[in-house]
Specification:
Elements: H1 10-20, E1 29-31, E2 38-41, E3 45-55, H2 67-83, E4 88-98, H3 104-121, E5 124-132, E6 138-148, E7 163-166, H4 172-189, H5 201-208, H6 214-222, E8 229-232, H7 237-248, E9 251-255, H8 263-272, H9 276-282, E10 289-293, H10 295-301, E11 308-314, E12 319-322, E13 328-330
Parallel strand pairs: 4-5, 9-12
Antiparallel strand pairs: 1-2, 2-3, 3-6, 4-6, 7-10, 7-11, 8-10, 9-11, 12-13
Bound molecules: adenosine-5'-diphosphate and magnesium ion.
């Protein structure tokens, strides 16, 4: 038997391979694999279903991730995928794999975070599953939500000249992770050392406690604007923009000087000697929304403080960064590829 190594396919190649072997059999299945959430026709609305799994050692490190934050984040990332379809999440199920290193009090803390998120996003915890785990802590959440049929937003609807918008700062979570990793190494080398996190709370907070931008979905809805395409930024702007472009069959130009990067992120980028632009493009875990709107619709939303135009879509296949210094450079999707780690 031939054996193909996983890293020859990568995460997206593997998903495509799985996808290619299935066809849908129910007419209610409007969209299966390939977007932020599946879309099911339930009568007068579409129901959305999304699932995300977080694993200890891959997605989080329990030595610096408070379980309360982990619980909150696990809910927020699923609510974010529902928002990326222009929908509002309503229900979640939570499945956990537990090792005996985890105490009852720790699980209480995890569920406190889950409960905070349920209150913030107005979702109901309606079930889950509990199992022992020999390979660290695992949490997998499935969220369902709803969207009016005429407001569903896929990744594939962007048209040339649509304005490309993002809902907030990029690259902060990436530096949050760099700081926590650095402080962990310092601590391991010398447990007497106290972590130096002063003035870094903003960045660390962005990593540990991201918010799903449901607020933007409500604002767009109130102004009667339906994006032509949308995705949430889990892997990094470059990777998500590539999904919008390839699925829509368009290109894009992003202006370097329009990328929203907070001062804290800039300062820390200098400290780590990492380009803030690279972090903004490829850092990931920002959980902002990346979407396109028709130019006429952009006029209706341009005063929203958290709708930031960063570029526009083109009829070429190129995805390019217009440099502040002049000229352009290709944007290459690097993203996190957890299979390669
Ligand atoms: P996101 O980053 O928005 O969570 P992913 O990149 O994880 O999206 O997934 C992209 C698409 O592939 C989604 O439709 C998701 O449901 C689907 N998918 C991912 N892994 C699998 C799998 N193992 N089997 C079937 N579908 C999958
Ligand atoms: Mg997503």
């Amino acid at each position: 038997m031939e054996r193909t190594e996983l890293n020859t396919l990568g995460e997206f190649g593997l998903i495509d391979r799985i996808h290619s072997k299935f066809t849908t059999q129910n007419h209610e299945t409007i969209k299966g694999i390939g977007d932020d959430a599946a879309v099911i026709d339930v009568g007068d609305k579409y129901m959305l279903i999304s699932t995300d799994m977080l694993l200890e050692g891959i997605h989080f490190d329990l030595s610096y991730t408070p379980l309360r934050h982990l619980g909150y984040k696990a809910v927020a990332v699923n609510v974010s995928d529902i928002a990326a379809m222009n929908g509002i999440a309503k229900h979640i199920t939570v499945s956990i794999g537990l090792s005996n290193r985890i105490s009852v009090e720790a699980i209480d803390e995890l569920y406190e975070g889950i409960r905070f998120a349920c209150e913030d996003y107005k979702v109901d915890l309606v079930g889950g599953d509990t199992s022992a785990s020999h390979s660290g802590f695992v949490i997998s959440i499935t969220a369902t939500g709803f969207v009016e049929k005429d407001k569903i937003t896929y990744r594939n609807g962007a048209k040339p000249n649509d304005i490309l918008c993002v809902t907030g700062d990029l690259g902060a979570a990436y530096f949050g992770l760099q700081i926590l990793e650095r402080e962990k190494q310092v601590y391991l080398a010398n447990p007497e050392m106290q972590p130096e996190l002063q003035e870094k709370e903003f960045l660390v907070g962005k990593l540990l406690k991201p918010e799903a931008r449901t607020d933007i979905i409500h604002e767009l809805n109130e102004l009667g604007v339906v994006p032509t395409s949308m995705i949430d930024i889990s892997d990094g702007l470059a990777s998500e923009l590539m999904h919008l472009c390839t699925q829509s069959g368009v290109g894009a130009i992003v202006f370097e000087d329009k990328l929203p990067i907070e001062d804290q992120t800039m300062l820390t980028a200098t400290e780590f000697n990492i380009s803030p632009i690279t972090a903004a493009l490829n850092g990931g875990e920002d959980y902002q929304l990346l979407f396109t709107v028709k130019q006429a619709d952009f006029e209706k939303i341009k005063n929203l403080s958290d709708v930031l135009p960063i570029g526009y879509m083109t009829d070429s296949k190129a995805i390019e960064l217009a440099l502040t210094s002049g000229g352009t450079t290709a944007i290459k999707a690097q993203g996190w590829n957890h299979l390669e780690k």
